[in-house]
Design a protein that fits this description.
- The structure is a single chain.
- The protein is α+β, with helices and mostly antiparallel strands.
- The chain folds into 2 domains: 125 residues, 2-Layer Sandwich (Alpha-Beta Plaits); 43 residues.
- 60% of the residues lie in helices and 16% in strands.
- The chain contains 6 helices and 5 strands, in the order H-E-H-E-H-E-H-E-E-H-H.
- The chain has a 5-stranded antiparallel beta sheet with strand order 2-3-1-4-5.
- Strand 4 and strand 5 form a beta hairpin.
- The longest helix is centred in the last third of the chain and has 42 residues.
- It is elongated, with a radius of gyration of 27 Å.
- The termini are far apart.
Length: 172
């Protein structure tokens, strides 16, 4: 590989890492091509990408960027999972794959520039995703006016029951 090819690879990785909200460094030593392809497919379905890059090129590309905190973890065989949209979905896809695979492991990650351990990535994967959080927020916002209306309906209902009881008492 000549210098211009290396510069192009470094530029491409730097561009992807700066655009990504999460970067997960994984260990894939001993995986088959089929397993790696399945991981790539599962990441692609949630808006992520998996790249296997030479460690020295990755260190250079990550230096001075958003995910600079994890540049020193590029050792031996490692792959980088990038996610631009929903970091929880990327963490969930990588974490689920790590649970099913015997050789695939999560080393560390960087979320918006803050480094995370493998346990923190697993904890992030257990959180609800963006759409679930929006649904919970919408449900909470909808509950306030609904409860307010039912409160006033109960006040009127109580008044009507009292008036009906008075009417029945006078009729008897």
């Amino acid at each position: 590989m000549n210098r211009s090819e290396k510069a192009a690879i470094i530029g491409a990785i730097k561009e992807k890492s700066d655009a990504a909200s999460i970067a997960v460094v994984t260990d894939f030593k001993g995986m088959t091509v089929e397993e790696l392809t399945n991981l790539r497919v599962s990441l692609r379905t949630v808006g992520g990408e998996l790249h296997v890059v030479k460690n020295t090129l990755a260190r250079i590309a990550f230096t001075g960027g958003t995910h600079d905190s994890i540049k020193d973890t590029f050792l031996e065989n490692c792959a980088i999972a990038f996610g631009t949209d929903d970091p929880v979905a990327i963490a969930k896809a990588v974490s689920d794959f790590a649970k099913t695979s015997k050789v695939f492991k999560i080393r560390c990650a960087s979320l918006e520039g803050k480094s995370m351990t493998a346990d923190q990535v697993d904890a992030l994967a257990k959180m609800p995703n963006k759409q679930q959080l929006l649904g919970q927020l919408l449900g909470t916002m909808h509950a306030v006016p609904t409860n307010f209306v039912s409160l006033f309906a109960n006040i009127q209902r109580g008044l009507l029951y009292a008036l009906k009881a008075i009417e029945e008492k006078k009729a008897a």
